[in-house]
Design goal:
Elements: H1 4-20, E1 29-33, E2 40-42, E3 58-60, E4 66-68, H2 77-86, E5 92-96, H3 99-107, E6 110-111, H4 116-122, E7 126-127, H5 137-144, E8 153-156, E9 160-165, H6 168-191, H7 202-215
Antiparallel strand pairs: 1-2, 1-5, 2-3, 3-4, 5-9, 6-7, 8-9
The structure holds zinc ion.
Zinc ion (ZN) binds next to loops.
C-alpha cells in the first residue's frame, strides 16, 4: 500500500479532530503531503471518521489524480491540491466545519486578535474569504486570495475553517486555537451587546509574536 504511514496519520488526525469536537459526521477533510514524492494522502469522500481505515485514505498527485486507493477522494480535493501547489510552506491541511469559526464567517471579514494565545501563533488575526463555490477551483482561489506565504489559517465564508501546518500536529493545533478564539469572540460580542469587544492591542502583537517565535518551548 503506497504511503501507508501517511495514510495512518490521516486516519488518526480525523479521530483526533472528532474528539476535539471540531468535526462532526462526515464533514471536514484532512490531507498530508509526502515531501519526498509530492504525493498527497487525503481523506475519502463522505465516510464517518470512526469507519475510515488506512486503506480508505486516497493517494492523489498535486492535480488531484488518484495514484493509489479504491475510494473516491474528498470532494474538496481541488482545494487541497491548489493550496499545496501554490503555498510550499504547507505540509498538512485540516479543514473543519467548526461551529464558532463558521459563525464568524457570516458576520465579519476577519476574526480579530481576541486572545493572546491566538496572536502568538497567528499574528494579527484570521482572514475570512469571499464566498467560494465548494468543489470547484473557485473555492481554492477564494482561499489563496487571502492566505499569504506562511499563512496558517483561513475562515471560509458561510462554510468553516481551514488550518495549515508543516505537519498534522501543527495544523490541528491551529484549528483548535482558531475555533477557541472564535468562540470567545462570539460570546464576547453577545455579552457586549453586539459591540466590538476589547482586542489585543495592535502595537503589542508583533512584539509578542516575535518573542514567541524566538523563545517559546524548551531550548535545544
Ligand atoms: Zn467543507
Amino acid at each position: 500500500m503506497l504511503l501507508a504511514e501517511l495514510r495512518e496519520q490521516v486516519v488518526r488526525v480525523g479521530m483526533d479532530a472528532l474528539k476535539l469536537g471540531i468535526v462532526h459526521g462526515t464533514a471536514g477533510n484532512m490531507s498530508l503531503r509526502d515531501p519526498a514524492s509530492g504525493l498527497i494522502a487525503i481523506s475519502p469522500s463522505g465516510m464517518p471518521y470512526p469507519t475510515v481505515t488506512g486503506r480508505d485514505v486516497v493517494i492523489v498527485d498535486d492535480q488531484g489524480n488518484v495514484q493509489d486507493g479504491f475510494r473516491k477522494p474528498s470532494s474538496e480535493t481541488p482545494l487541497h491540491t491548489m493550496v499545496y501547489r501554490h503555498r510550499p510552506h504547507v505540509g498538512a491541511i485540516v479543514h473543519t466545519h467548526s461551529h464558532f469559526s463558521t459563525v464568524v464567517s457570516t458576520i465579519r471579514d476577519a476574526l480579530p486578535p481576541i486572545l493572546a494565545e491566538m496572536t502568538l501563533v497567528l499574528g494579527a488575526g484570521v482572514p475570512v474569504t469571499r464566498y467560494g463555490l465548494t468543489g470547484t477551483p473557485d473555492f481554492g482561489e477564494s482561499v489563496l486570495e487571502v492566505v499569504d506565504d506562511g499563512g496558517l489559517a483561513v475562515i471560509l465564508r458561510n462554510h468553516g475553517l481551514i488550518a495549515f501546518g508543516k505537519d498534522f500536529g501543527e495544523a490541528l493545533m491551529i484549528a483548535e486555537i482558531v475555533e477557541e478564539a472564535a468562540k470567545v469572540y462570539v460570546h464576547a460580542l453577545a455579552a457586549n451587546g453586539g459591540r466590538e469587544p476589547n482586542l489585543v492591542p495592535e502595537n503589542r502583537i508583533l512584539e509578542m509574536r516575535n518573542r514567541f517565535l524566538t523563545s517559546y518551548g524548551q531550548p535545544g
